[in-house]
Each structure stands twice: as structure tokens, then as C-alpha cells.
Amino acid sequence: MLRDKTGISLMFVMPIILVMVVTSIQNSTFQLMNKSKLPVLVCNQDTGQASLQLLAAINRVGLLKVSPLPKDQSIGKIDKAMKEKDAELAIVIPGDFSARVAAKAQNAANKALKSFGLQGDSTKNQVLSTAPPFTLYFSPVLQEQLRFSIRGGLRSALQLVESRETLRKLYFAINEKQLPPALEDEMINNQSDIGMVSVSKNGGREVPNTTQHNVPAWTIFAMFFIIMSLAASVVREKVSGSFIRLKTLPTNYFVGLLSKQITYLGVTLFQAVVIFSMGIYLFPHIGLPGLNLPSDLTALIITTIITGWCAVSYAICVGVFSNTQIQASGFGAVSIVILAVVGGLMVPTFAMEGYMKTVSNVSPLHWSLEAYYDLFLLGGKLRDVFANLIPLFIITLILQVLTFIGLKRQNLI
Amino acid sequence: MAIANPPAVSLEALDFRYPGSDVALLSNLSLNIEKGDSFGLFGPNGAGKTTLMNLMTGVLNVNAGNVKILGHPIGTPSKKVNRLFGFVPQDFSFYDELSAVENLEFYGAWAGLDSKRIKKRTAELLHILGLEDVKKRQVGKFSGGMKRRINLAIGVIHNPSVLFLDEPTVGVDVQTRHAIISYLKELNENGTTLIYTSHQLSEAEALCRDIALIDIGQIVAEGTLDELNKKYKKKSLEELFLSLTGKDFRD
After folding, report:
1. What's the CA gap between A31 and A52, in Å, rounded?
2. Residue of B40, B88, B56 lying closest to B199 (CA atoms)
3. Is A251 exposed, middle or buried (0-12, 13-18, 19+ CB in 10 A)?
4. Mutation choice for A interface testing from B60, B79, B88 by most A CBs within 10 A
5. Phi and psi (nearest 5°) for B211?
6. What ipTM goes with this model?
7. Which of A211, A285, A377, B60 is the most buried (most CB within 10 A)?
8. What is the total count of domains within chain A?
9. Is the residue at A383 inside a domain?
10. Domain co-membership, A41 together with A23
11. The model's pTM
12. Chain B residues touching residue A249 (CB < 8 angstroms)
């Protein structure tokens, strides 16, 4: 196996690069969302105060950094900047923005006064435009998830501006004087923050980082990627006639199959040790959060062993049913990616629709991931991961039975 | 109960057809090969030689009949009988990525030898078959002749009493063929029963004492070469072969 340089690079080097790259990218996204801000070009055609308040509110949301265009710059400038990839986001505030905010606020205030039993100025009720108050332009490269976050932030800023205007109108209608700035500030800008507490099984309140999410997930992926080397090796043995020769020798083939499984299980465990060690010792030196091992190391070892055994069983099974090495490698690689997607490595299973959730139960990677998340993120113990290890073990046994049937049908044992 | 002096190989009323096939490849075939014999199994392509070899070695399972090696039925779960014979398949059946020594050690372990015996046999075989100088080289990088020799060495690593050889000299040069045939003769002189198939009829004449001609799943002639030549009034195995199996292509 040591002479199979391609196989070793697929088993060790590629997963290590994958874990580092994915963790780094996700960490940068996290930094972007929490520390850096996305620049947004603004073409403000409005001359009123509401648009200026809107821009101030957008800046305060924390997600975006407003970059206003000079008044004489047209929408065409935005179009050009986005096409030339100078900007990913842009907002066009129409010339009647302040007027529309004022009209909407007046209508809301009138309704409120009426409901309080006071007489609002119904003559000031206006027909409101159904057009959106402003438009967000975005580059298609922005992921949907990020787009929705941005939209949420902008809605919150718009709501703030509209609420402020409604409050002013109400105050003026009741008191016939302007809302004092101190009171306005007290009522509008004094927003309460939301408390965020991580709820884990061991009662700990640590907030998991990107490493804690990514290293276990991609370690599972790496372990299953052993298929690239192992399935091809099984096919080679079949094609070369080694299986036939072994069949004529006195040792029972199950001894050989077991030896092969133990050897490759050792490789998968070594992969896990290498990747976890990298997370613990290397990541902090390259600016990434370090990996914290779970408190229940026995559970971690058992989970890793069963995951590794399942990965090896799957690889041997694919090898037995493949006729060529290309078949084994091609099917193996694609199937692992599919099982990873279905299993929640790329999109969490809790975010999946009903039937996809059911399908995810078929993926051994799903059960491994759930067990690892229980241990790495939720502070779970061995008893907590049993519910995940049992299906994983059953899938492994099914793969073993399929391998036996395949070998028997091909007259190899 | 095993008989007192059983033949090396005994086939009794064998029937065999491949799964899904309506045609029986072998039908009611019986044959005894005596201990110490050097037995040649010949026939045109598709006659059933390799299938018969695979049935005798337990690679395939018979549909009906019995196969016994030295009185012991083949294909039992314990595989104890597999210690008694060796098999040299036509294909190179070894691990390309391993060296000659590593292949011999691996297959020696599978043959049930202890490490001391494996080391001894490995050294002996590498010496006899002229592979000492390349013993640490990956066999995938060997020449065709060297691959044939290591293929043979693996088949005899456990000193089998009966050795099955499926075209052991195909595709090799004269020197390698000579070395392989000499070694096989030496094995036979020391008591190993050889069961051999080949299309090299002149080579077979030099090596085999008894022969059987097989065609369309049936043994069409069996005996020593002299007996058969006398019976069919032929001068060589090739003449005999053509007269009994015809000149039409078979594949």
C-alpha cells in the first residue's frame, strides 16, 4: 500500500487539503458575516431625510457598508460597476422615497389615532404605491443564504425608518409639536440585543467554531474516500486472478477478507488521527480556530472505528461488484459525494425537506456525522451516540452480506 | 473412508454447465490420474480444458459427480485438501506492486507455512528459478519470462504433492521455457504429480507420460503417447491431435 503513491495522496494529502480549505473558507465567511462588512453601492435619488436615515440604519445593521455614489451618478454607473465585478450589491433609492415613507407613516398614524379614539387627519390619507420602496441589485454569484441575510438586514433598517416616521407623525398629531430628539432616540435607537446561548448535552455553553463543525465532517468524508484505493485494489485482485489463486490455497478467504479489512481500518483510523491532530495543533498556527476533542474519548474512538469499518466495507463491496478499476473509482468517488450530500455534510439534514430527510437515513455518512456532532458540538457521551452507531453498524453488516453474496455469485470464494 | 492408495486425482461422472447456460460443458466425465504421473490434458480452444482444471482445483463447483485429490474430496469448507495441491494459472496471479520475495511470503502464509519455512522455500525457489537478483524488484516491472517463473514459484511454494499447470510456458522465450520444463521434470522425478495443459505439443511430448485429449467436454482419447500413436497409427502428438479433433477453427 505504501507504494501506491496516488492512493496515499488520495487517502491523506487530499483530505488534509480539503479540511484546511473548507475550514478556511467557512471561517472567512464567518469573519465576513461577523467582523467585516459587505460593501454596497448606493444610488440615492431621494433628497429627503428618510433616505439618509435609511443609509444610517443600514450601516448600523452591521452586515453592509454603504458606499454612496455622487448625486450626479446614474443607475447606469451601478450597472457598469456590477457587470465589471466592482460591486456585488447595490441599492437604488427612488426620488420619492422620503415622500412615500411619510405617506405610509401618516396613514399608519391616522389608523392608530382612530383606534385610540382620537380623530386623525383623514384628509391626509393617501393612496400608497405598491412599488417596493427601494430595490436591491445583487450579483448572481452571491449565495441564496447570504442574499436572504442581507434582505433581512435591509428590511430591519427600512422598518426602523418607517417606525421613526410613524412615531413622529403620531407625536405631532397628539402634541402638535415635534418629537424631541432625546425621546426619539430613546424609543427608536435603544434596541435590545438578543442573548445567544449554545445548548449542549453536557451543559457547557461554549459556542462551536467552524473547525468544530468542519474537521469531524470532512474526516468522515476522507475515511470514506478510501474507496478510491481499496475498491480499485479489490478489482485488481479479481482481474489478475489473485482471488482465484487464493481460493485454491488452504486458508479460508474470510481470514483474508478480515485481514484486508483490519489493515484498511487501521488506515482510516490513522487518517482520523492525522486530521484531528492537524485541527488541534496546526490550525491555531494558521489563523484558524483549534479543534477541541470531545470529553468522552472512548465514544470518539468507538465512533471512529465503526465509521472506518463502514467505509472499508463499502469500498470492498463496490470493488466486488465492479468489473474494472475505472468503474470502481468512478462510481466510488461519485457515490461518496452523493452520500455526503445526502448525509448532511454539505447541507445540514435538519434543513432538508421531508423525503430528503428520510433518504438521508440511508447514508452511512449521515449517522457518522450525527454521532460526531453529538460528541464534538453537543458534548455528548457514548450513550448519546448509540442511537447513531446502531444504524451505522447495521449498514456495515448489510454491506458485508452484500460483499459475501457478490463474491459467492462471482465464484470467488 | 479414503482408499489405501488413492489416485492423485480422481474424477467421477462429472457434469458441469456454466450458470445460465443450457449446454453442458462437461458431461459424465470420469478420469483417474495416478500418483507421480506427468499428465497432459490437451484439446482445441473451448474444449473445456481450463474449466476441467478449475473443477479439479475447486475454483468451480461441479453440478454433479465427484472430484478427489489423493482420495480427499475437493471443495470442503475446511480446505484441508488444498494443502495437497498447487495451482499455476495461465494468468499472472500475483500482486504487481509487491516484490518477488513479498509475493512468495504472502502466498506462503496463505498456503499455511510458518515463517521459517516460508523464508527457506522463498530462497530455494528464487535460486532455482533464477530470480535471486531481482527478488526485491516489484514483479509488475518484471519481463514476461520472469513473471511466468514467479507465477510458477508461487504455485509450488508449499511443496504440493499434486501440481496443476494451465499453460505455464505461454508467451515465454526458449530459455525460460527450457528452465520451466526442466524444473517441472525435476519436481516430477521427486514425486510431484503434474497435471498440465498446453498448446505447445512438442513441449508436452517432452514432459508428459500420460495424456488425455479432450474435445467438446468429452475425453476422446487417453493413454501414454506411444499407446495412442500406435492405436491411431500416428507419429506425433500433433498428428494425433488433428486426427481426433479435426482442422476446423473452434473459437
Report:
1. 28
2. B40
3. middle
4. B79
5. -135, 160
6. 0.82
7. A211
8. 2
9. yes
10. no
11. 0.74
12. 79, 82, 107, 110-112, 158
Q: Chain A residue with minimal CA distance to B74?
A: A248
Same domain assignment for residues A334 and A276: yes
Q: Are residues A403 and A258 in the same domain?
A: yes
Residue A194: Cβ-neighbour burial (10 angstroms; 0-12, 13-18, 19+): exposed
Residues A157-202 pLDDT 10s: 898 888 888 888 888 888 778 878 777 777 766 666 777 666 666 6
Residues of B in contact with A4 (CB under 8 A): 97
Q: What is the C-alpha separation between B106 and B129, in angstroms, rounded?
A: 18
C-alpha distances out from residue A158 to A58, A100, A148, A179, B220, Å: 8, 12, 15, 20, 98
First-to-last alpha carbon distance for chain A, in angstroms, is: 23
Q: Which residues of A touch B (CB under 8 A)?
A: 3-4, 236-237, 240-242, 244-252, 256, 411
Residue pair B70/B224 in contact by the 8 Å Cβ criterion: no
CA distances from A199 to A202, A206, A207, A218 (A): 9, 9, 9, 24
How many residues are present in chain A?
A: 413
The range of the structural domain enclosing residue A168 comes to 37-189
Instruction: Identify whether residues A238 and A356 lie together within a single domain.
Output: yes
The count of other CB atoms within 10 Å of the CB of residue B116 is 8
Q: How many Cβ pairs closer than 8 A exist between chain A and B? A: 65
**Whether residues A348 and A401 fall in one domain:** yes
Reference A53, options A98, A117, A105; nearest CA is A98
- Does residue A321 share a domain with residue A404? yes
**Phi then psi dihedrals of residue B31, to 5 deg:** -165, 140
Q: Which member of A236, A240, A411 has the closest CB to residue B91?
A: A240
pLDDT digits 0-9 by tens, A89-140? 888 888 888 988 888 888 888 888 888 777 656 556 666 677 788 888 888 7
Helices marked H in A11-48: 14-34
Strands B9-16 and B26-33: antiparallel
